[in-house]
Amino acid sequence: MPSRPTPLTLVPIDPEDDVPLHRQLYDGFRDAILTGRLPPGGRIPSSRLLARELGLSRNTVALAFAQLHAEGYIEGQLRSGTYVSRTVPDALLRAQWRPADRATASSGRAGLSARGRALAGTGLHSEEPAPKPPRAFRPGLPALDAFPRRLWTRLANRRWRGGHDLPLAYSDPAGFRPLREAIAGHVAAARGAHCTAEQVLVVSGSQQALDLAARVLLDPGDAVWLEEPGYLGARAALLGAAARIVPVPLDREGLSVTEGERDAPSARMVCVTPSHQYPTGVTMSAGRRLSLLQWAARADAWILEDDYDSDFRYASRPLACLQGMDAGGRVVYIGTFSKTLFPALRLGYLIVPLHVADAFRAARAVCDRHSPTIDQAVLADFIGEGHFGRHVRRMRTLYEERQVALVEAGRAVEGLIEIRPAEAGLHLVGWLPPGVSDRRAAAALKQEGIEALALSPHYIGSTEREALLLGYAAFDRRAIRRGVEKMGAVLRRL
Q1: 364: enclosing H helix or E strand
Q2: Going from the N-terminus, what domains does the chain have, and what CATH number goes with each?
Q3: What is the pLDDT of residue 302?
Q4: How far is CA 384 from CA 376, 389, 443, in A?
Q5: Which member of 59, 281, 447, 494 has the greatest number of CB atoms within 10 A?
Q6: What is the pLDDT of residues 44-95, one digit of tens each?
Q7: What is the pLDDT at residue 126?
Q8: How are beta strands 269-272 and 302-306 bridged, if at all?
Q9: When comparing pLDDT for 385 and 33, which is higher?
């Protein structure tokens, strides 16, 4: 039996209203449908009848009906008329937006994979963006106030004015060729690396480099040596690859190869930061580097060398990287521009042995095709025209001065925290007295506007002594002095 037509009183029209008449008619029908006053399957009067009864033109009614039909609220049936849709789109949308029950969402096949749970537990996603301006003593930040913004803007504008030469199409997953050539030249001169542009892959920062290397070179369950304490980003990448992490302790010469061989002699990979160990700041000795390379040859293992801030060494010239000492093609080298330029640039690089370059290129294409080519082109100009080298030299001088300022300010709080100088890097370790929790100290400092990371989360096992990581590169002398004074007041209360 055909349904009864809709009463016209359900769609009131006010000719004096500022809302257009077709919109009033659309809103009236939609509201009646959503509130159930027009049930699913209910018949809608013809546009001719509606126009006559409501005193509207048929064009006005047709415009409202077209919108309702396009959005799925009404449907037409051949030789029968127009009806309210059986399935209202808003009901489907509400079903999608309804918060899922935590217990239900985390169980069964709809839950996370084992690797997904491991990644979710790393805590990297919870890191808060740096405030503007950044607060002392947030580690990992360069001197953003000293970056040559006008020069960078001029280079970027010149690229955008390049006309047909502007690289706007899809690019090589390995990266913009002139930038790869510039990177190869820089690491050869500054770090003693041996490579060609064919071995360089441009990536979105060192974290993507770690993730790519882990996924390309490791199988689930492979044992990997990781410095203890070590970089949380490296740990997260290894967990994402379902590797079996073997924490290897440090001594004054860096990662202990002897301890690593004892615990996992046939490990597939070792992740190291030999030039400036993160987070302790230890520099791996030449003898220990040779021992590590010899072990990798015996074990047929990979060495993943993260050279995140080696450009900033103050006691001597930057040390030669492991990649430059490697004769067996076992070292994968990671560099980043986040520390030398600015983190938001999101550009870093991998240098890989030639025989695995194609595999890395393919993995890079699967990941996100390639990094933004315009930014790569601007960076290639910045390096190729000598601006990068000059900037690094200026920052090296500035950061050395700021490290001295932090050490000097730290003397006023002796007994509360011990701040020792380092030969390289952008942060120092502030050792706390025995029995003082670095997690508790970091939380108390954060409440007072001071950002200092706790050392203990960087351990997989337990730590003998707790400490705070104090970044200094992004802060001038005044900010450093005030930060230390406030830190001392907080630590006294603890």
Answers
A1: helix 357-368
A2: 8-92 (1.10.10.10), 154-386 (3.40.640.10), 390-493 (3.90.1150.10)
A3: 97
A4: 12, 9, 44
A5: 281
A6: 888 888 888 888 888 888 888 888 888 888 887 656 788 888 877 665 545 4
A7: 58
A8: parallel
A9: 385
| Helix H or strand E segment including 249 | strand 244-251
Within 8 A by CB and 6+ apart from 62, the residues are 47
**Position 96 pLDDT exceeds 60:** no
C-alpha to C-alpha distance for 438 and 468, rounded to whole angstroms: 6
Cα 97–chain centre separation: 27
Alpha-carbon distance 138 to 445, whole Å? Answer: 11
3-state class of 461 per DSSP? coil
Residue with tokens 């025989």: 355
Taking a C-beta distance cutoff of 8 angstroms, is the pair 212, 367 a contact?
Answer: yes
Orientation angle between helical segments 387-410 and 477-493, nearest 10 degrees: 40
Q: What would the mean pLDDT of 368-377 be, rounded to a whole number?
A: 90
Contact 272, 291 (CB under 8 A): no
Q: Which one, of 134, 148, 156, lies nearest residue 340 by Cα?
A: 148
Q: How many residues does the chain have?
A: 494
Residue 391, exposed/middle/buried by CB under 10 A (0-12, 13-18, 19+)?
Answer: buried
CA distance 422 to 250: 16
Decide if 238 contacts 224 (C-beta within 8 A).
yes
Task: Please tell me the distance from the alpha carbon of residue 236 to that of residue 116, in angstroms, as a whole number.
Answer: 11
The residue written with tokens 């490290």 in the block is 403
Residues 6+ apart with CB under 8 A from 5: 43, 44, 45
Q: Which of 99-108, 234-243, 267-276 has the lowest mean pLDDT?
A: 99-108
Token pair in block for residue 494: 């603890």
Contact (Cβ atoms closer than 8 angstroms) between residue 349 and residue 213: no
Residue type (1 letter), 391: H
Rg (CA), the chain: 31
Name the pTM for this structure: 0.78
Which one, of 418, 338, 10, 331, lies nearest residue 144 by Cα? 338
Distance (Å) of CA 57 to CA 11, 28, 32, 53, 456: 15, 17, 22, 10, 75
Q: For the segment 423-477, what is each residue's pLDDT rounded down to a tens digit? A: 889 999 999 999 899 999 999 999 999 999 999 999 998 888 899 999 999 999 9
Q: How far apart are CA 277 and CA 306, in angstroms?
A: 9
Separation of CA 256 from chain center: 30
Q: What percent of the chain has pLDDT over 90?
A: 62
350: left (phi over 0), alpha (psi -120 to 50) or beta: beta
Lookup: tokens for 67: 């919108």
State how far Cα 451 lies from the chain centre. Answer: 19
Q: What's the mean pLDDT in 365-388?
A: 92
Q: CA-to-CA distance for 388 and 183, rounded, in angstroms?
A: 11
Half-sphere exposure of 431 (CA within 13 A, CB side): 12
